[in-house]
From TrEMBL:
InterPro entries in the record: Cupin_2 (IPR013096), RmlC-like_jellyroll (IPR014710), RmlC_Cupin_sf (IPR011051)
Organism: Nannocystis punicea
Protein name: Cupin domain-containing protein
SUPFAM superfamilies in UniProt: RmlC-like cupins
One family name in Pfam for this protein: Cupin_2
Lineage: Bacteria, Pseudomonadati, Myxococcota, Polyangia, Nannocystales
Ranges where the Cupin type-2 domain occurs: 42-109
């Protein structure tokens, strides 16, 4: 199953992980506020997207096929078809494809954080 048209962007060792991630930009530059991007991604067998912070947007990650693990703010959880992971602005994510013989496919939907989410915490 491929979701996306045309050639993908090929990214190696994302955020200090390992393996290749294919990324299709499904909005293709179209404005769709409050959504800032919709990405279709394929993480190669055994691949790993390293830990990274949601620096600009909130996002949800939706599992399509495969078997993996999503670690959000240090808490691991199973990730696969039908799984939806919510990542508030400033949270961290790490993704692992636990299969050595099949890719992990997922969608990422990013949106501008709600006003309460984007307000700095007192003392920060």
């Amino acid at each position: 199953m491929q979701i996306g048209h045309g050639p993908p962007s090929r990214r190696q060792a994302m955020f200090g992980g390992h393996g290749e991630v294919l990324v299709w930009d499904l909005l293709a530059g179209q404005a769709a506020p409050p959504f800032t991007s919709v990405l279709s991604c394929v993480l190669e067998a055994g691949g790993h997207v390293g830990r990274h912070v949601q620096q600009r947007d909130s996002e949800i990650v939706i599992g399509l096929t495969g078997c993996g693990e999503a670690t959000v703010d240090g808490r691991p959880q199973p990730f696969g078809p039908g799984t939806v992971v919510f990542l508030p602005f400033r949270s961290t994510l790490e993704l692992r494809n636990e299969r050595a013989d099949a890719p992990l496919r997922y969608l990422i939907v990013k949106a501008t954080p709600a006003a309460a989410e984007s307000t700095p915490a007192p003392g920060s």
